[in-house]
UniProtKB/TrEMBL annotation:
InterPro entries: Aldolase_TIM (IPR013785), HMGL (IPR043594), PYR_CT (IPR000891)
Entry keyword set: Lyase, Metal-binding
Gene Ontology molecular function: any one: lyase activity
PANTHER family: HYDROXYMETHYLGLUTARYL-COA LYASE (PTHR42738)
Protein name per its UniProtKB record: Hydroxymethylglutaryl-CoA lyase
Keyword Zinc carried by entry: no
Keyword Metal-binding: yes
Entry similarity comment: Belongs to the HMG-CoA lyase family.
Amino acid sequence: MIDDQLPDRVRVREVGPRDGFQNEPERIATADKIRLIEQLAGAGYKRLEVASFVRPDVIPQLDDAIDVLHGLDVPGDVELTVLVPNERGLQTALEHRETFHDVVIFLSASETHNRKNVNRPVDDSLATLERMAPVIKDAGLRCSAVIATAFGCPYEGHVDPARVVELAGRLAAAGCDELGFGDTTGMANPRQVRAFFTRALEALPGVELTAHFHNTRGQGLANCLAALEAGITSFESSFGELGGCPVPPGATGNVASEDLISMFHEMGVDTGVDLDALLAAAREVQSVLGRRLTSHVLVAGPIAWGERAGV
């Protein structure tokens, strides 16, 4: 795809309040979570992943999901997303269904990662998700599914893209409205990303495809650009570059929202997010965490010369 074929606008889901906060060594106070989420909504985000219904003994950092959801006050056009790991988690979430709009279910493309993450073989996880998706839809909610290790597994190495597309097709057939593909430990490269999404867009018509990259090896933004050039218009990122995968040690770092938003805006691709307001939220989370974050735009500041540099 050449520059004049790039989309005018993309959708970005901010996942820091879930994917980011779950990896912090200490619990963030519920009031601070609510304040930060509302600040992100005020920055113009229309999609926010805010909670998880994972067992509290597994991820205690998110054990206040219900309090967070009931405490939020965001504009009515902001879509709130929760993640659920299994049918029990979904049952609990649905008891509070009036507080959110979208449910994310997930599995891994590789056997080893799936067993380490949820202690089940992939086929068992897939069968469970195929039961869960219709329940989510029947509750009047949007259903999204994420396939982790879609671009490589830290334990097995190469992941067959045909297998990833096959899993995605099963999930689409079960009723998922959106399919996310996660570069769980930052193993993807731009050439691989472009080829995969070109294939996936052809094989999975009528379903929103979302790119979720990690910056573990410094290729996160390049991979986002490759996905954009392939035709993807839905992305996920985390303010302050928070988060990552808690399973392999040291595999942290989602693509920073402020870096992604800045890049898109400099290219003339609208996100609906106010970059200055997003940076203010990233600085606020620094204060809450008591440590300095090092995402590039947060450190260097946005480019100030011209509205659309390089366009």
